[in-house]
Design goal:
Strand order of the largest sheet: 1-2
Helix content: 40-55%
Number of helices: 2
Protein name: Biotin carboxyl carrier protein of acetyl-CoA carboxylase
Strand content: 15-25%
Structural class: alpha+beta
Organism: Salmonella enterica I
Length: about 60
C-alpha cells in the first residue's frame, strides 16, 4: 500500500474521532488504532475529587 494512502488514513482517523480503522486492498491490509490518554484509568474521578474537597473543608 502506498505510504501516501496510509498517511491520509491516519489523518482521517485523527479527524473523525473513530478509534480504529482497518482497510484491505488485495493481499495487503492496514489497521490504524488510537488509544486515549485515560485508557488505563478505572476509578471514579468524580468520587476522588469529592473526597479531596471534603478533606479540605474539615481542616
Amino acid at each position: 500500500m502506498d505510504i501516501r494512502k496510509i498517511k491520509k488514513l491516519i489523518e482521517l482517523v485523527e479527524e473523525s474521532g473513530i478509534s480504529e480503522l482497518e482497510i484491505s486492498e488485495g493481499e495487503e491490509s492496514v489497521r490504524i488504532s488510537r488509544t486515549t490518554a485515560n485508557a488505563g484509568f478505572s476509578g471514579d474521578a468524580a468520587g476522588l475529587c469529592g473526597a479531596d474537597d471534603a478533606a479540605t473543608r474539615s481542616v
